[in-house]
Amino acid sequence: MPVSIDLTDETQRSALAGQMNAAAVELPSLIGMDRAEMAEAMIASGVTEKQARMRVAQLWQWIYVRGHDSFDRMTNLGKDLRATLEKNFTLARPEIVEEQISTDGTRKWLFRFPSRGAGKPVEVETVYIPEEDRGTLCISSQVGCTLTCTFCHTGTQKLVRNLTPEEVLMQLMVARDRLGDFPDKDAPQGAFVPTEGRRVTNIVMMGMGEPLYNFEHVKKALLIAQDGDGLALSKRRVTLSTSGVVPNIYRTGEEIGCMLAISLHATNNELRDVLVPINKKHNIAELLEACRNYPGVSNARRITFEYVMLKGVNDSLQDAKELVQMLKGIPAKINLIPFNPWPGSQYECSEWDQIESFADFINANGYASPIRTPRGRDNLAACGQLKSESERLRVKERLALEAMVVGHGET
Ligand code: SAH
Ligand code: SF4
Questions:
Q1: Which atom of ligand 2 is closest in space to residue 148's alpha carbon?
Q2: Active-site positions?
Q3: Residue 393: its pLDDT value, please?
Q4: Nearest ligand to the C-alpha of residue 350?
Q5: Can you spell out the DSSP letters for 294-305?
Q6: How far apart are CA 382 and CA 106, in angstroms?
Q7: Which of 87, 79, 27, 24 is nearest to 55 (CA)?
């Protein structure tokens, strides 16, 4: 069972109160602005142009290297400037509605972002997966999804809205807060700030939503995450997963430069039209053509093809053969994902033996084909299980799900 922090309990809620500065919540956040916008915003609030341009680099450091969420400790900024910033902007974190820690160390957070004048507050899920050599944060790009992939839980939740750049980035910021991953927060001013030994070493845009249907916001957030003088994640440690929004794939390589993952899941259009309905708009041939032309793709920078293992649907050795054939000539990795069930899902996960023979076949044909070990299933944090608020699990459903998961035999 997950170790759950129940935030209906007042004591625990107040233990996290530092995460949220309710009074400041409606002020515009500086998080998610690029340097030019930050300077503009400061100028608009009365800071002189010279001062604004000069101070942006320092502010950037406080926010992204040190992880500070208030202006009062930014001691090298000068008292007046700090007061102006305090009055006009916020760095407040979203409310943490829930934080669950799974038995395997996976963490899942449910964040609530304020409405900022548009609709209702929204709830977003973010998942942290620690492994021996890395720690991966799975970030959401939308609340819900416009697409309706039939094996995906998120696909059953209508799109509520796109996340803003601030909200995309904030998932990384708060995960780092909670994991103690801003260790230099209290280092003296001017001290050398190490970037080694981080908890969050990789991020993947594989949470709720289709990132390429929220391209501009995701791009802005990822460019800030990859900024060498701030959060400093290398482009090779940032992966964007898409169901196949072909027109934006090239732009991703060109303008973001991160790694690409494609949710393939089928080797022919007939089946892919059902599993990943965007295929009716951009079919397999078109998708693979975009992959071949992905800027920067090479054997050292391969594209990941995700393939969910659905019992009796796409898991035969014939499928494996076709998969290998269709990816010829593309520098590729194949990621086999055991299907994660959710209440009401119409598929079953392939038998473990079948997944292994499928993987063996692919291996024998020259592809490294890691099978993604199911993580965090005990708290519904696994791929494709993310879904927020509108239909929370009832206890009965949850028990039914756990029974199903046990039936699959964890590895
Ligand atoms: N919308 C993007 C990114 C989010 S989904 C996309 O589709 O690529 C992240 C990955 O989880 C995708 O490869 C998706 O196909 C996979 N996925 C979705 N539901 C799943 C499920 N129930 N079991 C296993 N993988 C799933
Ligand atoms: Fe949306 Fe991706 Fe789920 Fe498809 S798999 S419904 S694109 S989140």
A1: 6
A2: 125, 383
A3: 38
A4: 1
A5: -TT-SSSSPEEE
A6: 9
A7: 79
Burial environment of residue 40 by CB neighbours within 10 A (0 to 12, 13 to 18, 19 or more):
middle
DSSP 85: H
* Ligand 2 pocket member 263 (CB < 6 A): yes
Q: Is the CB of 308 under 6 A from ligand 2?
A: no
Note the ligand closest to the C-alpha atom of 249.
Answer: 1
Q: Can you tell me the distance from the alpha carbon of 358 to that of 80, in angstroms, rounded to the nearest whole number?
A: 64
Q: Write a three-state SS string for 350-411.
A: CCHHHHHHHHHHHHHCCCCCCECCCCCHHHCCCCCCCCCHHHCCCHHHHHHHHHHHHHHCCC
Distance 317 CA to ligand 1 centre (A): 22
Instruction: Name which residue sits closest to atom 21 of ligand 1, judged by CA.
Output: 384
Q: Provide the pairing of β-strand 95-101 with 3-5.
A: antiparallel
Report which of 164, 279, 278 is spatially closest to residue 220, judged by C-alpha positions.
164
Quote the pLDDT of residue 105.
86
The whole-number pLDDT of residue 175 equals 96
- Which pLDDT belongs to residue 223? 98
Cβ(125) to ligand 1 under 6 A?
Answer: no
Could you tell which of 139, 148, 152, 342 is best to mutate to test the pocket of ligand 2, judged by most ligand atoms within 8 Å of the CB?
A: 152
Q: Is 209 in the pocket of ligand 2 (CB under 6 A)?
A: yes
Q: Splitting the chain (411 residues) into consecutive groups of 10 residues, what average pLDDT does each group show? A: 35 41 68 97 96 95 94 92 96 95 91 82 95 94 96 93 96 95 68 68 97 98 97 97 98 98 98 98 98 96 97 98 96 95 95 96 88 63 51 40 33 22
In this predicted structure, what is the pLDDT of residue 268?
98
- 3-state SS, residue 280: helix
Ligand 1 near 141 CB (within 6 A): no
In angstroms, the CA 72 to CA 94 distance is 19
Closest-lying ligand to the alpha carbon of 306?
1
Task: Decide: 213 in ligand 1 pocket, CB within 6 A.
Answer: no
Q: Ligand 1: distance of its center to the CA of 241 in Å?
A: 8
In this structure, the dihedral spanned by the alpha carbons of residues 37, 43, 44 and 46, taken in order and rounded to 10 degrees, is 150
Which residue reads 């732009």 in tokens? 251
Contact assessment for residue 261 and residue 239, using Cβ atoms and an 8 Å cutoff:
yes
Task: State the chain's maximal CA–CA distance in angstroms.
Answer: 69
Answer yes or no: is the C-beta of 384 below 6 A from any ligand 1 atom: yes
